[in-house]
Design a protein that fits this description.
By secondary structure, this protein is of the alpha/beta class. The chain has 2 domains: 98 residues, Orthogonal Bundle (Arc Repressor Mutant, subunit A); 298 residues, tm_1862 like domain (pyruvate-formate lyase- activating enzyme). 36% of the residues lie in helices and 21% in strands. The chain is built from 16 helices and 19 strands. α3 runs parallel beside α4, α3 packs across α11 and α4 packs parallel to α5.
């Protein structure tokens, strides 16, 4: 029987998609995706994800596709091609209302206020933005000026996602992200004063030098800003994949046991403060759309995490952005010069992807319900595919160590992860991942 520490030291995907990105391949290209977009049933809803792959400083914990720049010229040049891609894709999906839009990075707030306006104008010109659509932007509060807050408000921003990680100075120095609490609070207040009421706070546990005392203080300070949502992610130390993570001293990283204690402390503190636990690592006030969606059984999971978004198609725009369409997944070229060359040639900038099989769709449904609801009814989910609980005997066998430890229970055709064991849900989901055993990718630890 694996020990408690061994179980939670296992490396498994975060399951923001299934199949996961390491299994995408070059057999899916621009022409494939062009056909997928043409086949979208009208007027199916769309979500847009827009990637700005630039930052002004390098955060050593970051696993995103981004590049540090010290002047604006690369951003201005990138935007020229992003505008072109927006026009090209928009021409293919006219008549589909956009109900969710998310700008991520990198640091979208590196854009100038004038370019924020131009970008939103271009999106509104080429896509049909639905009334009341959610418009969220990832915000780095360090040095954020009032002019940018005003530009975001004018562009229609209605949800701000603010990166915090940890407010302890020692931890901040160890990850090269100095961000005083007062500066973060100033930005939250400025956003609210501009009419942007929905605030998300993103925290990370498992960082170098991080302790239970750090986590407690950071959460207490964050609670004083009264956000609508929290995301509490585990730091994924993958220096083989992101070379800059080698700058983090592995000797001062919390071990698996300490990471689990930090996770459980965060869960306890936020629950006690009135936030509803959402899936594995999100928390929301009871009247927030995320909590309402979870209660109604329609919570979803995508590359940005948990979402109430029910659009059947997510289109990624920009270098490295991933699209999730009914037929499969497609990722744009990750390096900006390659992306620029494809867009300049009038092509869709797709580098790789994967076509979904019926088995992929079934397993994706099981994994998503586990990740969102902490349970999955194998008979109900399998029925549209001619499958039932009996077809998953090998997976149930794989789960026996977790069943024995009480991390998951079998209730007739249902798998149920107790709320007290939500930290183990990725391990349960991994039992249904037929790609994992043959994968060479090294994932983050389970907690």
């Amino acid at each position: 029987m694996p020990s408690h520490s061994e179980l939670f030291s296992a490396r498994v995907p975060r399951y923001t998609s299934y199949p996961t990105a390491p299994h995408f391949h070059a057999g899916v290209g621009g022409e494939t995706v062009r056909g997928w977009l043409a086949d979208l049933p009208r007027p199916a809803k769309l979500s847009l994800y827009l990637h700005i792959p630039f930052c002004d400083t390098l955060c050593w914990f970051c696993g995103c596709h981004t590049k540090v720049v010290n002047h604006y010229t690369p951003l201005a040049s990138y935007l020229d091609f992003l505008f072109t891609e927006i026009g090209n894709i928009g021409a293919l999906v006219g008549g589909h209302p956009v109900t969710h839009m998310h700008w991520g990075g990198g640091s979208p707030t590196m854009l100038s206020p004038a370019d924020v306006k131009k970008l939103k104008t271009a999106l509104a010109e080429h896509f049909e933005i639905a009334p009341g659509a959610e418009f969220a932007v990832e915000i780095d509060p360090r040095g954020l000026k009032d002019e940018m807050v005003a530009a975001l408000a004018e562009a229609g921003l209605n949800r701000a996602s603010i990166g915090v990680q940890d407010f302890d100075e020692t931890v901040q120095k160890a990850i090269n992200r100095i961000q005083p609490f007062d500066e973060t609070r100033r930005v939250v207040n400025a956003l609210r004063a501009a009419g942007i009421r929905a605030i998300n706070i993103d925290l990370i546990y498992g960082l170098p030098h991080q302790t239970l005392a750090n986590v407690k203080r950071t959460i207490e300070l964050s609670l004083s800003m009264a956000p609508q949502r929290f995301a509490v992610f585990g730091y994924a130390h993958v220096p083989h994949f992101k070379k800059h993570m080698q700058l983090i001293d592995e000797k001062v990283l919390p071990d698996a046991e300490a990471r689990l204690e930090q996770f459980e402390l965060a869960h306890s503190l936020l629950s006690a403060a009135g936030y509803v636990p959402i899936g594995l690592d999100h928390f929301a006030l009871p009247d927030d759309d995320l909590a309402v969606a979870q209660k109604a059984g329609r919570l979803a999971r995508n590359f940005q995490g948990y979402t109430p978004d029910d659009a059947p198609a997510l289109i990624g725009l920009g270098a490295s952005a991933i699209s999730a369409l009914p037929q499969g997944y497609a990722q744009n070229k990750t390096e900006v010069p390659d992306y620029r060359k494809a867009v300049q040639a009038g092509e869709l900038a797709v580098a790789r992807g994967i076509v979904l099989t019926d088995d992929d769709r079934l397993r994706r449904a099981i994994i998503e319900r586990l990740m969102c609801d902490l349970e999955a009814d194998l008979d109900r989910l399998g029925a549209p595919f001619g499958k039932s609980f009996a077809d998953f005997r090998p997976e149930i066998e794989t789960l026996k160590p977790l069943i024995a430890e009480g991390y998951v229970a079998v209730d007739r055709s249902r798998l149920v992860v107790p709320p007290s064991a939500r930290a183990a849900v990725r391990l349960v989901a991994a039992a249904f991942d037929v790609y994992l055993a043959k994968s060479k990718a090294v994932h983050a630890v389970a907690v």
